[in-house]
Amino acid sequence: MSLALHYSICPVYVASHAAHDLGFLREELERVGAALTPLSTLPDGQAPVAHARHNQEYQVRDGGNIPALWARAEHADTVLVGSTHVQAGGQLVVRVEDDIRRVQDLAGRRFGLSKSLDTRRVDWWRANSQRNAGLALGLAGLGWNDVETIDIEHGLPVQGTRGGQDWEGRSKQDIVFKLPFTPEFAALADGRVDAIYTTQGRAEIYERSGQFRVIEDLARYPDWTLQLAASPYTLAVSPALARERRDVVVAWLCANLRAARWIAANPDAAARLLHRHVYHETVADVAAQIARIDFAPSLSPFNLTGLQIGADFLHTAGYTTNRVDVAAWLDASFLDEALATLPADA
Fold first, then answer.
1. Does an H or E element contain 273, and which?
2. What is the set of domains in the chain, with CATH numbers?
3. Each residue of 38-54: pLDDT tens digit?
């Protein structure tokens, strides 16, 4: 009987999207007797929880590092087998008509932060916003005590993983303006707050509506540690999968390595493919992004340092009770085997 491999892929720039759509994952997994089973096949309401907690016996999760780090710290002895660095620090956004031109002008103003009421999962968007908006404030000589933090509560399920949300036939503006995990956008639009944080192409969509302005962009600084918005993205597997079905993990990595090579060789087609899976509004926007990304899964010292910075923030800020040691989390032998066994022309 074929092993049912539960999986989820965040709507971010990772090779797993191309590996899936091009059939590489299916091909590689079939060779080792495994079949893809999206988390969306779980009973109602369980998929978003499984995506965050990594609680399925045989599971692969590729995407933003905050849920992966939280799962490792609090719930599951997962194994990190790859990562993808994407420089995306994010932006601070205000209404176009407001008298806020610099971050310094936010002193005494209302800053909106999303607050999830779903205690089953880490509040990943709040954590992402809190870290990166805090960095932006700090660059302007401000701190959280200098602004009025307004919590924008929501209890809707966070979707967006493969199988969890159908984007077909919807414009990116419609998707971004209605994301359940970013309710602070609506609060900014209707005047309940004066500024918010966002990233992953959403700021461009806000600005193109003619209603909003970016007053700070962390991408403009040379300091790469200011550009870790849930990146490096993490490819993590469940402990049972790593322990019992090493061949399946290696097969996934082989598929992703093939996809990374295809993206590098076919940037225009890759931009069209990935445009279906990420938030950036146009194919041209996506093309500009992927030109700067190495999609091959990596466990480089650079990526691991970025992950440790994220892990330490989550612990210091109280999102995890246990500290993640990234060096103890990873196992490079799976990626080494995939690199050694994959033909050069695959």
1. helix 267-275
2. 3-86+231-341 (3.40.190.10), 91-226 (3.40.190.10)
3. 998 998 889 999 999 99
